[in-house]
Design brief:
Elements: E1 2-4, E2 13-14, E3 22-24, E4 30-34, E5 67-73, E6 81-91, E7 94-99, H1 113-117, E8 120-127, E9 138-140, E10 146-148, E11 152-158, E12 165-166, E13 171-172, E14 175-177, E15 188-192, E16 200-206, E17 223-232, E18 241-243, E19 247-254, H2 257-276, H3 280-289, E20 294-299, E21 308-315
Parallel strand pairs: 1-4, 3-5
Antiparallel strand pairs: 2-12, 4-17, 5-16, 6-15, 6-17, 7-8, 8-9, 9-10, 11-14, 11-16, 13-14, 15-18, 18-19, 19-21, 20-21
Helix pairs in contact: 2-3
Length: about 325
């Protein structure tokens, strides 16, 4: 199995000018070792998110949220669709979340001064599960609260068509820092392709995250991700899509949130019409009447240029049988 080691996973932009770090064929397995979003800075509660103390924070925007890549997928061309198959994510022994002054939506809170006057880092221990790994392990929030580790890839995508986008706040139909908890093992991510080989990047794994990632950081961790790629020739979706074993999800990132929700729903309708043979009328009425249609708000952080990320989801049982 080909591998990108952690020391080589230190890019901070989705850049079509980058030379490929590795070449793979469709169906070939690849292993990527990722940094956490803080590039290894947060090791204990003593490591505070003070910008002046953090490497890379003398740059604008900061050199944070490292990603690995680009990966060149042989046979992939502009106008195709890249299918990312996420097989396994094995997180390291700890994860962290960091809050403090001017960080996140309560970084200037007067109601709870400790949130805006102090820097706080929480480090969570991970215990292994029955497999002997963290893939089915437990995250310990404190001595009384714990939950199953539910890892996913927070930042992934291909190189945008003409722009260069940073890994810290770049987002688009091509992917980016979207923090979608459904980018997890067992699911497929569909991305539109703009350059030969796709130029795929990946990083920013979370051990777990609540809806919206309210503070701006979740359970940030280092990891090993195992994945493979498929190619759909001659078709390019209007935006990022996800297929789970039981549902399909159309994604859009935008501000305000209602526009992200609206466009994600339109993209789901487009998927139903173009792929599954629904009429526009049936697709339109289905998303309004089906009790199992869902809007997922994955990321809604009031941080920098980040847009809000919404997903419009429909169970597969409502799709025509193939």
């Amino acid at each position: 199995m080909k591998k990108i080691i952690r020391e080589d996973a230190r890019k901070f932009a989705f850049d079509y000018n980058d030379k490929p770090l590795i070449h793979v064929k469709a169906g070939e397995r690849l292993e990527i070792e990722t940094w956490d979003a803080g590039s290894g800075f947060f090791k204990s509660a003593a490591d505070k998110a003070i910008p002046g103390n953090r490497p890379g924070f003398d740059r604008v925007p900061p050199l944070a949220n490292p990603i690995a890549g680009p990966v060149f997928i042989e046979g992939l061309e502009r106008g195709d669709t890249l299918v990312v198959n996420i097989h396994e994510i094995e997180v390291e022994k700890t994860s962290w979340v960091a809050i403090g002054p001017r960080r996140g939506p309560l970084g200037e809170s007067t109601r709870w001064p400790e949130l805006s006057s102090e820097y706080t880092t929480m480090v969570f221990k991970h215990s292994v599960g029955p497999s002997g790994t963290t893939m089915d392990g437990t995250l310990h929030f404190n001595d009384k609260i714990s939950w199953p580790i539910t890892p996913f890839v927070g930042t992934l995508g291909v190189a945008p068509d003409r722009e260069v986008a940073t890994s810290i706040d770049g987002q688009g139909d091509w992917g980016g820092n979207v923090d979608i908890r459904d980018c997890k093992p067992g699911n497929k991510v569909f991305l539109p392709v703009y350059h030969p080989g796709g130029l795929f990047y990946l990083g920013d794994v979370h051990a777990s995250q609540g809806d919206t990632e309210y503070t701006g950081t979740a359970a940030e961790t280092q990891s090993t991700v195992r994945l493979s790629f498929d190619i759909i020739k001659g078709k390019r979706p209007p935006g990022m899509r996800i297929e789970t074993p039981s549902s399909i999800i159309a994604i859009h990132a935008y501000r305000p949130l209602e526009e992200a929700v609206h466009q994600a729903t339109v993209f789901l309708m487009d998927w139903l019409i173009s792929t599954y043979g629904f009429s526009p009328t049936d697709a339109y009425c289905l998303v309004s009447t089906c009790p199992d249609f869902r809007i997922n708000v994955y990321q809604m952080c009031k941080i920098g240029k980040l847009s809000y990320v919404a997903g419009a989801e429909l169970p597969k049982r409502y799709l025509p049988k193939s």
